Amino acid sequence: MDVAHFLFGIFGNATALFLFLAPTITFKRIIRSKSTEQFSGIPYVMTLLNCLLSAWYGLPFVSKNNLLVSTINGTGAAIESIYVFIFIIYAPKKEKAKILGLFTFVLAVFSAVALISLLALHGNGRKLFCGLAATIFSIIMYASPLSIMRLVIKTKSVEFMPFFLSLFVFLCGTSWFVFGLLGRDAFVAIPNGFGCGLGAMQLILYFIYRNNKGSEEAKKPAANGTIEMGPEKRQQEKQANGEVVQDEQV
């Protein structure tokens, strides 16, 4: 079981890394245009918080046998920090102030969780406190594709839900769900079981509507802008060529 636990952790690291790197397309666009346009920076700041909390939870003095959770979420935290800094550089003043404030809030929350768990809690109490915090934000992160799934059902088109990113959401959630089961860790298994279920729903929707051309309503965003997978805003008329980006995080 130890070998299987390790192998699922390695596979989970690989699939999660793919998802963390998915928004690079978005940020290449931002750097090229020197504008954040209608993109939202909130998802990246909140994913940063999720990564920080999950990385902290995986440390040996908080929970046992979860070091692989720390490695990928530590990497994710570094990647998301880069996204946040790029967004702050190119965002307009009002949006920049909002993201800076949210970034400060994220650092304050993480610092509070870390300090409380170190100074006031020990043993199972520390694991419970940190695990609950990490689980809540993991579920919020995994729930982000619900809006695009609703769009697929409404328009009967998968034009804005790329297959391979849906597949990796499923594989990532599944691998960490099994990792949590093998390690008997509910704080890893529960949120990733939720992610596994949502990933499966995305794949089911894809196979139901994959041959549909979609309604006229579905085609409008492709003509006027983009819809990104995850909590991104719809792009307005500035965007061309119907570029589709699906952002997903662990």
List keywords for this structure.
mainly alpha, 10 helices, 72% helix, disordered C terminus
The gist of it:
The protein is an all-alpha fold and 250 residues long.
Mind explaining what this structure looks like?
With 250 residues, the protein is mainly alpha-helical. It has helices spanning 2-21, 24-33, 42-57, 67-90, 93-119, 123-142, 146-155, 163-182, 186-209, 216-224; strands at residues 228-229, 245-246. It is 72% helix and 2% strand. The two termini are 24 Å apart.
Instruction: Output mean pLDDT.
Output: 81
Distance between the termini: 24 Å
Radius of gyration, in angstroms, nearest whole number: 19 Å
Could you spell the SSE succession in H and E letters?
HHHHHHHHHHEE
Which overall shape is indicated by the principal axes computed on the Cα atoms? globular
Number of strands: 2
Q: Beta-strand percentage?
A: under 5%
The biggest beta sheet is recorded as: 2 strands, parallel
Q: In order across it, which strands form the biggest sheet?
A: 1-2
> Helical content, roughly?
over 70%
State the low-pLDDT regions, or none. Answer: 216-250
How many distinct helices? 10
Secondary structure class reads mainly alpha
